[in-house]
Specification:
This protein is an alpha+beta fold and 178 residues long. It has helices at residues 21-30, 53-68, 79-88, 112-118, 150-157, 166-176, and strands at residues 2-8, 34-38, 44-49, 74-78, 101-106, 127-131, 134-138, 161-165. The strands form two sheets. The chain has a four-stranded antiparallel sheet with strand order 2-3-1-4, sandwiched between helices. The protein has a four-stranded antiparallel sheet with strand order 6-7-5-8. The two termini are 12 Å apart.
Length: 178
């Protein structure tokens, strides 16, 4: 069985689209996911399954809509895929302040035209690098003050996205190894 991470977009933010983690865990248990755990209230799941990422995403999105009455985008990565993303981060080096690093997970790889068009944007001193289904972000200040948001990448790349800070990314990987 493969360890997986599911990352939900936009739940429990500002009192909207509220889902208790115990309810989310129970919902995943009912979907047949095994060894389900949660990490913080923003919609991070660690679990075991042999189903494809796409199948898991679709099943959970449908179950959330049916049980809670609103749509929540879900992105699933395997523990191995997350390790690869961590290894590829061009901003994560020995000198990096991890409070300035973020990873935007893309639902799918953007088409070349959208990718190339997005690369023309420059919001220095904030920086980003698109690599497959990952967007690595360095923010010189606070993430919420940056123009490099989920909405920016969704609008420019034309794919679903959700972002986690680097501390959360590292913790999700650590939890997925157990």
């Amino acid at each position: 069985m493969n360890r997986k991470i599911a990352i939900l977009r936009g739940i429990n933010v500002g009192g909207k689209r509220k889902i208790l983690m115990t309810e989310l865990k129970s919902l995943c248990d009912n979907l047949g996911w095994e060894n389900v755990g949660t990490y913080i209230q923003s919609g991070n799941l660690i679990f075991t399954s042999n189903k494809t990422n796409t199948e898991l995403e679709n099943n959970l999105e449908k179950a959330i809509t049916e049980n809670f009455g609103f749509d929540v985008p879900v992105i699933v990565r395997s523990s191995k895929e997350l390790q690869t993303s961590i290894d590829k981060n061009p901003f994560f080096d020995g000198d990096a302040n991890i409070d300035q690093l973020h990873l935007t997970f893309l639902k799918e790889k953007p088409i070349t035209e959208n990718n190339e068009k997005t690369l023309t944007y420059n919001y220095e001193p904030d920086k980003f690098k698109i690599d497959g289904k990952d967007v690595f972000i360095f923010c010189s200040g606070k993430y919420h003050q940056s123009k490099l948001t989920n909405n920016f990448f969704e609008n420019k790349l034309k794919v679903g996205a959700t972002t986690r800070n680097w501390k959360t990314v590292l913790k999700l990987y650590e939890l997925s190894k157990n």
